[in-house]
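The material for today's practical consists of a large collection of protein records. An example says more than a description, so a record of this kind follows:
***
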Amino acid sequence: FTLSIKSKIKQQLQIKAIDITGRTVYIKNYQANAGSNLLQVDMNQWQKGIYLFHFIATSGEKMVLKVMKQ
């Protein structure tokens, strides 16, 4: 699974994936550069289901992305 992340500035991001039960299954700190960034997340060992990816930037921006693994 590849995440495409666009950032206006170079900044640190915390990326966290939470499963439907509320359990954190993935957490990573990522240095995003200004512009487009690609981040590979290996979900091969994860169970099928819905995951919420939370992105928190040092600039204070927050975003949530819902992903379904089939």
